[in-house]
Amino acid sequence: MNKIQIAGKEFEILLENDQISKRTRLIAIQIDVDYESRCPVFIGVLNGGFIFMADLLKEINVSCEVGFIKVSSYVGTESTGKVKEIFGLPGDLHNRDVIVVEDIVDTGLTLSYILTEIHKQNPSSVTVCTLLLKPDALTTKIEELEYVGFEIANEFVVGYGLDYDGLGRNLKDVYRAKTVVIP
Ligand code: IMP
Q1: Which residues of the chain have pLDDT under 50?
Q2: Which of 94, 96, 136, 143 could form a disulfide with 154 if both were Cys (CB 3.0 to 4.6 A apart)?
Q3: Where does ligand 1 bind, in terms of residues with CB under 6 Å?
Q4: Residue 7 lies in a domain
Q5: Strands 125-133 and 97-105: what pairing?
């Protein structure tokens, strides 16, 4: 299917599942090499990262631990602005090699917050593996961004874990929002 509709909005194919699988296998090989004889802790970010995390981990051969976190964001008081909160972050990351697995890095604000919280535990190393990156949307430099599946334009995408209005996470491929051409 090249075009789909979700909640009345049109999307067109951007990345087919086969392309994603091939790239995921290559990233896994790279991680296996980089973490040889270490035992990294993979931390997947829910909800969007669940499919990429599962597919990536099936290709990883080094001994490793796996966990998931969820970040909620809500508007705080006027002085605190937008407050984020992390649920499920393991408390024993001291001296561990941590790999954060994300579906997409957009502005990078969510990821920066997650990384700040992880660094508070003094792990030996922290890297980030993201399936998608929107380089033009990044507002902050993220040194830990080591493994990137695909760099994409600054447009809204859905599928393979990513949602539009809560829908579309179950799609096998990644779709981008069709831009409306004004005549
Ligand atoms: P950031 O804090 O701006 O980097 O946003 C990260 C989160 O926003 C991701 O983990 C996604 O949940 C969501 N997000 C950002 N861009 C998209 C998109 O194009 N489609 C679906 N979700 C997105």
Answers
A1: none
A2: 136
A3: 48, 102-111, 156-158, 162
A4: no
A5: parallel
